[in-house]
């Protein structure tokens, strides 16, 4: 079973990389770009697990290693 983890900086945390990308997009003519936030994406493949167990295990992984809870938020999505 596969699960995806989307990690992003919390809204209160300054995102310099996102700001640079937003500025670059605006300079390329995309004047409608207001803001860009960067993040990370993980795809985790688990050996035989039911969806509830998979979500619990991957959430533990995100809490312990994949995300920094002080400055980042994350969301876990289990693929059927």
Please tell me about this protein's structure.
The protein has helices at residues 16-27, 51-66, and strands at 2-9, 39-45, 72-79. The protein is built from two helices and three strands. It has a three-stranded antiparallel β-sheet, covered by helices on one side. It has one domain (2-79): Phosphoribosylformylglycinamidine synthase subunit PurS (Mth169, Chain: A, 2-Layer Sandwich), CATH 3.30.1280.10. The mean pLDDT is 96. The chain is an alpha+beta fold.
The CATH class is identified as: Alpha Beta
Give Rg in angstroms.
16 Å
What is the structural class?
alpha+beta
The largest sheet, given as strand count, sense and whether it forms a barrel, is: 3 strands, antiparallel
Alpha-carbon distance between the two ends: 7 Å
Task: Indicate the low-confidence ranges by residue numbers.
Answer: none
Number of domains: 1
> Numbering strands along the chain, what is their spatial order in the largest sheet?
2-1-3
Figure out the total of helices: 2
Write the layout of secondary structure elements.
Elements: E1 2-9, H1 16-27, E2 39-45, H2 51-66, E3 72-79
Summarize the structure.
The chain is α+β, with helices and mostly antiparallel strands and 80 residues long.
Keywords:
80 residues; alpha+beta; Mth169, Chain: A; 2 helices; 3 strands; 29% strand; elongated
